[in-house]
């Protein structure tokens, strides 16, 4: 059993994004015999980190609540507006980018499991449909995610939170691309 466990752990460590494997290997093999297994604490710690986010409003609080998310979004738009590589997606936004900042920040509060101030202020929204009029290809999707990645790294966030958020943000970003491309 131990060699199988090590194989699973190697695979998991090389593929930090494969949550399912991590959970499966941990719950099935680890805790039944953790005392005799040296990789137990490492796997246990990884699992705790992964499972902290995405539970209730834990992500919202880890990101600093509404104030922290506003700071993140301000940084995101500042980066987008200060590098010519992002000019296309920056210029797609309405001239009043204060409202764009407000909308994204309030939306992300609810998206991270916190309160839903976006709905209170602006009403309901379907994210893919809200972008349907744009030509979001893989290029624009990745530029948007790159800006967000840079902004996330400028916050005082644990690496595990940054990786978790980027992984999760890819999902709506890709859904937007598919909708815009009519897929
Ligand atoms: C895939 C890359 C993305 C690009 C290029 C992009 C670009 C834009 C642009 C240009 C607008 C302004 C649209 C307009 O007013 O005409 C916008 C609005 C918005 N975006 Fe994105 N976006 C992307 C991904 C995302 C993601 C992943 C989220 C949320 C997780 C998001 C949340 C929003 C929200 C909440 C608004 C305001 C929508 C409204 O009130 O109509 N965007 N986005």
In summary, what is this structure?
With 183 residues, the protein is mostly helical. It has eleven helices and no strands.
Commentary on this structure:
- Residues 1-37 have low confidence and may be disordered.
- It contains eleven helices and no strands.
- It is globular, with a radius of gyration of 19 Å.
- The protein starts with a helix and ends with a helix.
- The protein is an all-alpha fold.
- The chain folds into two domains: 2-52, no CATH class; 60-180, Globin-like (Orthogonal Bundle), CATH 1.10.490.
- 71% of the residues lie in helices and 0% in strands.
- It has helices at 2-14, 19-30, 40-52, 58-62, 65-82, 87-92, 97-111, 117-122, 127-130, 138-153, 159-180.
- Protoporphyrin IX containing FE is lined by residues 89, 92-94, 100, 103-104, 107, 111, 122, 125, 127, 130-131, 134, 136, 140-141, 144, 169, 172-173, 176-177.
Calculate the mean pLDDT score and round it: 82
The appropriate CATH architecture of the largest domain is Orthogonal Bundle
Residue share in helix: over 70%
Which class of secondary structure composition applies to the elements? mainly alpha
CATH fold descriptor of the largest domain? Globin-like
What is the ordering of alpha helices and beta strands? HHHHHHHHHHH
Small molecules (ligands, ions, cofactors) in the structure: protoporphyrin IX containing FE
User: Given the structure, what is the number of helices?
Assistant: 11
Low-pLDDT residue spans: 1-37
| Major sheet size, sense and barrel closure | none
Rg for CA atoms = 19 Å
Strand proportion, as a percent range, falls in under 5%
Strand elements, count: 0
First CA to last CA: what distance? 44 Å
The CATH class label of the largest domain is: Mainly Alpha
């Amino acid at each position: 059993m131990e060699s199988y466990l090590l194989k699973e752990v190697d695979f998991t460590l090389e593929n930090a994004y494969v949550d399912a494997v991590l959970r499966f290997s941990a719950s099935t093999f680890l805790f039944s015999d953790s005392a005799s297994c040296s990789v137990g604490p490492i796997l246990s710690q990884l699992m705790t980190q992964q499972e902290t986010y995405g539970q209730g409003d834990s992500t919202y609080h880890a990101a600093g609540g509404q104030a922290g998310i506003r700071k993140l979004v301000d940084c995101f738009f500042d980066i987008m507006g200060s590098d010519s590589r992002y000019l296309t997606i920056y210029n797609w936004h309405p001239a009043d980018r204060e409202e764009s900042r407000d909308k994204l920040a309030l939306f992300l509060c609810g998206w991270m499991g916190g309160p839903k101030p976006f709905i209170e202020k602006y009403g309901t929204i379907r994210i893919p449909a809200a972008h349907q009029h744009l030509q979001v290809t893989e290029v624009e999707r990745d530029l948007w995610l790159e800006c967000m990645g840079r902004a996330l790294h400028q916050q005082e966030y644990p690496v595990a939170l940054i990786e978790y958020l980027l992984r999760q943000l890819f999902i709506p970003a890709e859904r937007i691309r598919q909708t815009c491309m009519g897929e």
